[in-house]
Amino acid sequence: MKNKLLVGLVVMVLLVGVLSGCIEEEPVKTEANFEYTSDDMYVGTEFIFEDKSTGEGLTYEWDFNGDDVVDSTEQNPTYLFDTAGTYNVKLTITDNEGTTSEYTAEIIIVLKDIVITAIDAGFSTLATALTTALLVDTLQGDGPFTVFAPTDDAFAEVNQTWLTALLDDVTNLTKVLTYHVVSGTYMSIDLTNTTVESLEGSSLTITVNESGVYVDDIMVSTADVECSNGVIHIIDSVLIPETVTGPTE
User: Fold this and answer.
1) Residue 115 CA: distances (Å) to CA of 105, 148, 207, 229
2) Mean pLDDT estimate for the chain
3) How far apart are CA 68 and CA 83, in angstroms?
4) Which of 89, 109, 129 is the last residue of a domain?
5) How far apart are CA 150 and CA 221, in angstroms?
6) Disulfide check for 214: which of 1, 83, 150, 207 has CB 3.0–4.6 Å away?
7) Average pLDDT, stretch 182-191?
8) In terms of C-beta distances under 8 Å and separation of at least 24 residues, what long-range contacts does 169-174 make, across chains too?
9) 179 with 154: CB under 8 angstroms?
10) 43 assigned to some structural domain
11) Range of the domain at 68
């Protein structure tokens, strides 16, 4: 009896082995796919792309700009979008049999608003002043605005006793800050020898010559920093309207 059971068991094992050899494994389907991560969706942010495709012996072609130009052949590339817009990012894979598959994802890249741009650029004194004067919401609004933004060094060159007093005087601080802001978007190419009215109400004198663009005789050191709600022109001095008493030294 035991011998018969043993023989039967051996036969079953042999049959399973034969049947297993006859069943072909389903081939892995070649299908492109990917995911991406980033800190935010602003211009200048680096995106990390992670391949999630299936298939065997894959090669990769990434088109980040939607222009059918291969920008990378890495499996998991990184990419920085330096212009606002809608991008149809496409991954094309090819397996070892020559089969191809494509996957496309839409990524919308936007500009930062004036306040975020200023903060990210390191304009900490200006950011503090805007917060104190309760102007953050205004300059994060639709606008558009043109801002002549003093650097931290510009504020550091002002008499610090006067600056400390100004930061404690919200009324005059608001006048000084809004004197740096003009309603509308004025790129450097749009500026001519003219006067423009600031949000403070006083006029700013714009001068354009072979040396560059000047506002109240202060040269614009960096022009045309584009924002979602306007533009920033960087200056190396603090502008003071006639309605505010400036420092004595």
Assistant:
1) 30, 12, 26, 10
2) 88
3) 18
4) 109
5) 10
6) 207
7) 92
8) 170/132, 170/133, 170/134, 172/244, 173/129, 173/132, 173/133, 174/133, 174/134, 174/135, 174/200
9) no
10) yes
11) 34-109
Question: How many structural domains comprise the chain?
Answer: 2
Supply the Cα-derived Rg of the chain in whole angstroms: 32
pLDDT at 4: 54
| Token pair of 40 as six digits | 């935010």
Instruction: Identify residue 140 by its one-letter amino acid code.
Output: Q
Q: 81, 109, 137: which is the final residue of a domain?
A: 109
Burial call 203-220: b when 16+ CB within 10 Å, e when fewer: bbebbeeeeebbbbebeb
Would you tell me the crossing angle of helices 160-167 and 170-178 to the nearest 10 degrees? 110
Q: Which amino acid is located at 17 in the chain?
A: G
Read off the DSSP letter of residue 100.
Answer: E
Banded model confidence at residue 61, pLDDT cuts 50, 70, 90: very high
The answer to the question of residue 20 being in a domain is no
Task: Answer yes or no: are the C-beta atoms of 58 and 18 closer than 8 Å.
Answer: no
Please check whether residues 158 and 75 belong to one and the same domain: no
Structural tokens at position 188: 């450097």
Which residue bears the tokens 């191809």?
100
What are the residues whose beta carbons fall under 8 Å from the beta carbon of 171, sequence distance 6 or more?
none
Shared domain check, 189 and 91 = no
Q: By CB neighbour count within 10 A (0-12 exposed, 13-18 middle, 19+ buried), where does 236 fall?
A: middle
The candidate with the shortest Cα–Cα distance to 216, out of 171, 150, 135, is 150
* pTM of the shown model: 0.74
The size of the chain, in residues, is: 249
